[in-house]
Write a structure and sequence with these properties.
- Its EC number is 1.1.1.35, 4.2.1.17, 5.3.3.8.
- It comes from Oryzias melastigma (Marine medaka).
- There is one protein chain.
- Helix 4 crosses helix 5, helix 17 packs antiparallel against helix 23 and helix 23 crosses helix 26.
- The chain starts with a strand and ends in a 20-residue tail after the last helix.
- The strands form 4 sheets. The chain has an 8-stranded mixed β-sheet, sandwiched between helices. A 6-stranded mixed β-sheet has the order 1-2-3-4-6-9, sandwiched between helices. Strands 5-7-8 form a 3-stranded mixed β-sheet.
- The protein is globular and about 90 Å long.
- It has 4 domains: 258 residues, Alpha-Beta Complex (2-enoyl-CoA Hydratase, Chain A, domain 1); 180 residues, 3-Layer(aba) Sandwich (Rossmann fold); 121 residues, N-(1-d-carboxylethyl)-l-norvaline Dehydrogenase, domain 2; 100 residues, N-(1-d-carboxylethyl)-l-norvaline Dehydrogenase, domain 2, CATH 1.10.1040.
- The chain is built from 27 helices and 19 strands.
- Strand 16, helix 16 and strand 17 form a beta-alpha-beta unit.
- 50% of the residues are buried.
- The structure holds ligand LX6MKDVF and 1,4-dihydronicotinamide adenine dinucleotide.
Length: 713
Amino acid sequence: MAQYSRVSGTVGLITLLNPPVNALSAAVRQGIVDMMDKALSDRKVKSVVICGHNGKFCGGADIREFSSPLTGPLLIPVIQGVESAAKPVVAAIEGVALGGGLELALGCHYRIAHSKARLGLPEVHLGLLPGAGGSQRLPRLIGVPAALDIITTGRHVTAAEALKLGLVDRVTDRNTVDEAVKFALSVADQSPQSRRISTFPCPHHPDLDAVFEGVMQRVRQRARGALAPVACVQAVAAATLPFAQGMERERELMATLFTSGQARAQQYHFFAQRAVGRWSMPSGARWDKTKPVAVHKAMVIGLGTMGRGISVALVQAGVSVVAMETNEKQLMDAKQAISSMLERGAKRRGVAPALDKIRYSSDMQPAADVDLVIEAVFEDMALKKKVFQQLSALCKPGTFLCSNTSGLDVDQLASETRTPELVVGMHFFAPAHVMKLLEVVYGSRSSPQAVATAMELGKQMGKVSVAVGNCRGFVGNRMLKPYLEQAFFLLEEGATPEFVDQVLEEFGFAMGVFRMSDLSGLDVGWRVRKADGLPDGHSARIRQGCRYSPLGDLLCEQGRFGQKTGRGWYQYDKPGGQVAKPDPWLQDFLEKFRTQHGLVARRIDHQEVLERCLYALMNEGFRILEDGIAAGPEDIDVIYVLGYSWPPHRGGPMFYAAMVGLKKVLERLEHYHQEHPDIPSLKPCNLLRKLVVSGSPPVQKWREFLQKPQSQL
Ligand SMILES: CC(C)(COP(=O)(O)OP(=O)(O)OC[C@H]1O[C@@H](n2cnc3c(N)ncnc32)[C@H](O)[C@@H]1OP(=O)(O)O)[C@@H](O)C(=O)NCCC(=O)NCCSC(=O)CC(=O)CCCCCCCCCCCCC(=O)O
Ligand SMILES: NC(=O)C1=CN([C@@H]2O[C@H](COP(=O)(O)OP(=O)(O)OC[C@H]3O[C@@H](n4cnc5c(N)ncnc54)[C@H](O)[C@@H]3O)[C@@H](O)[C@H]2O)C=CC1
């Protein structure tokens, strides 16, 4: 709803009231209509201010309403009503003006923003476009190039940038509503006619066609099949038409997006990201009952790929860091790399690099004086155990001990310490200062406070933290295993890395499985597999009674570790090169391999690649839910979208399974398992069967079929 009062004698003050972000629900839209009527019919009122309750202007349309039939007045006429008012209307923007919130502000005749306010049109992240006139008013106000940037990226703009762009008229450090009221008094006698953005012509640009063409090309490349970014460009292009025609085009494009599965997927992802913050543990401990401990000083051990990124992420979050490394050359290189990452990051954010927040050490001693340690040494259990023993002896009481292991047993590490309750996994994703995901792994003895502290520290670093149980590979890497396996089997059966990657990239992954493996390094998985014991000789294609593909191991034996060695599943122009080219050597190698093992290459189509790779991955997701390692499908989906480049417009693997239809997924898995009975990951999981028998409930209802999360080792 909205509240109304008259202030300073002649200013009608309308306050949007819908905590926590004053989203434009039906009641709020109706409130705006009613309160505008009140202000306009009150003869004492000469001008109007619209603000939001509790220091937040407006977070946009109420996204929860999108899943049911729209009620109440539509936002477009509400904003038109504000713009066409005969009395000047001023938006007092504090906190955020996002989506429909900014569109409402654009309907006002003036905009005053607090210096800390953020403005933006993030609809593209919800699979939509700014469909309440935003795609038409913004380019008229700030020009096509700037509007295209804001609308297609959905990024938030600071008040200072908004002022520069002409998006707001004034920025203040004082009480924004008071300033807006003063401003409203000063323009009370002026006609708002010349301030109605819908009447502005679209600003001239010398080469608009080239601008649209360039942006469209970029957007299509980045969209990975998402419809919204392309529709955003098309909508802004319509701003060059008369306003009414542009609005009609905006409506048409919005109507297509609004009912699309992509919009549903992206809106699901929005709420899923928030749902994972409400974690719980098998003991019943919960996010809202457990207070995290503030981390002021942390130590990072091992300054390779991950340790460097983790150190940067901590420093940028305001934490003092001791970065420790035993290898002298690595330490020197890390110092340089971390400094330049901090400098680049600071430059991007327009602040000074916090180089004084980090110091370096070649020994463990400084661990005695930190609140939390993150270990990031090689993925080697014996080595990690030794590090945890040392830490346990050195650290002051209460220090949290975390491991960045990709999938080793957190309980085993905890058992090396005197304080197993303070041990958790903090599994970052490379590059650790960029990727938004953090898996927080609780062991059987981790305390709720340790989990809460790691989750909160993740948030402080700008990550979405997901609490998961302890098992081999946790959630993300455990699901990756059957996905990779299927890709290898497909090569054995006749596919090429290029074809498999092309299918997965057309689906929307940023990189196909083989390009991704080349980037991460084939040796990483090889080491883990070797530690587990590799089959050899005649049994090379069988491991523990099941089908096994030794292709990855054979490549590593040839020194083909991927990009880093210039050869992997592809060839590169040099070690460290990034442009993947098909390698005739590999073709030859695959043919020889097939001959050696009596395999006959067959034609494999697009559908088989997608189904075998993705359904095997999803099937493991169901197992993870069944085992209670993830608390719900949202957790898995957030992990896959933020950590493994699953396309956001497909919601995540579990959401996608529901979209495809659980019955179909089950049938196809049954079919493939019949064809390949020696591949257990294709055997449909019981939970999937149970859900199908229960009528394939929507993903939001799956939790009702799950046990409590638990550790499984
Ligand atoms: C605002 C934030 C930046 C705040 O962040 P933070 O403080 O970190 O808090 P959060 O944890 O994120 O959020 C707190 C809490 O609030 C919930 N929430 C936040 N925003 C919204 C929202 N907009 N709606 C609902 N709920 C919201 C959030 O979920 C949390 O609650 P919890 O889940 O219970 O924990 C941050 O929250 C943020 O970024 N929010 C989203 C901002 C955003 O994306 N806004 C854009 C919304 S979409 C929009 O505005 C589009 C429009 O306005 C278009 C309207 C046009 C409608 C026209 C329909 C036409 C249909 C066409 C059919 C035509 C048919 C025909 O013609 O034929
Ligand atoms: N590389 C990746 O993409 C990811 C790796 N991880 C995990 O992070 C950990 C580290 O991986 P990377 O950074 O890739 O390895 P890396 O090989 O790049 O770096 C490891 C570093 O640890 C140092 N080190 C070894 N023993 C040490 C000790 N006792 N004390 C201090 N330093 C020591 C090494 O000298 C090396 O610099 C592993 O557990 C890995 O599984 C997790 C997520 C992603």
